[in-house]
Specification:
Elements: H1 2-18, E1 24-25, H2 32-35, E2 43-45, E3 48-50, E4 56-64, E5 66-72, E6 105-109, E7 115-121, E8 126-131, H3 133-136, E9 165-171, E10 174-184, E11 198-209
Parallel strand pairs: 4-9
Antiparallel strand pairs: 1-11, 2-3, 4-6, 5-7, 7-8, 9-10, 10-11
């Protein structure tokens, strides 16, 4: 009996050290527009067919509190390669999300497939995951907080926005997906500064725990 118990504990320990649990989505992609109270009714306002959608996107990866990390997207596996075998910094010691730089992997056509992840969390557990962008962004909506009448007349005549940024964040055992789009506005966001007729808002689209 003691032998069986010892073997069972060994199997459990091995599984815990090399496998990862299935993720539980905390934000359902199909409810993103509802959660943001976006108006998804087809309409045309001042020559702009709404709601706006996107057909290409930019991509960026942000890595926090991992012991090893690798990501592959659109056939490329070089993102955040400096953390492939070393610990990544904590979010508290990094640039806040609101100040993330522009996504550098630009003009990717929707969609080349899922994002493939391999990483080790701080507790030494190795994880693998595929983040299904085609499902998460199935409606193709560009997320933004600019009112219809604040969009410049005729700026988006095709109903297509400029390419939004998709930001993927891996933080220890949590994976988050964000979208950020640079939207033109009629008025200056900083009064007196003519270069601020635009805004970029970051939206949490999906979150997974592992």
């Amino acid at each position: 009996m003691r032998l069986h118990t010892s073997m069972l504990l060994l199997v459990v320990a091995l599984l815990a050290g090399c496998a990862t649990a299935m993720p539980a989505s905390l934000q359902a992609s199909g409810l993103v527009a509802d959660r943001l109270q976006m108006d998804t009714r087809p309409r045309v306002v001042d020559g702009n067919p709404l709601p706006l959608r996107f057909v290409r996107h930019d991509f960026a990866v942000h890595v926090y509190d991992t012991l090893a990390f690798y990501v592959e997207y659109n056939g490329d596996g070089f993102f955040a390669s400096n953390y492939r075998n070393t610990r990544s910094p904590s979010y508290a010691d990094s640039i806040p999300r609101e100040r993330w730089p522009t996504a550098g992997y630009s003009s990717v056509a929707n969609w080349p497939g899922p994002v493939k992840l391999r990483w080790t969390s701080l507790d030494g557990v190795e994880h693998t995951a595929e983040i299904d962008f085609p499902r998460i962004f199935a409606d193709g909506l560009t997320l933004h907080a600019v009112p219809d009448n604040e969009l410049p007349a005729g700026m988006y005549r095709q109903g297509i926005s400029t390419d939004p940024e998709i930001h993927l964040e891996v933080d220890n055992r949590t994976v988050r997906v964000y979208q950020r789009a640079r939207m033109s506005t009629r008025t200056e966001q900083v009064p007196g500064n003519r270069y601020t007729r635009n805004r970029s808002d970051l939206f949490l689209v999906a979150e997974y725990q592992y």
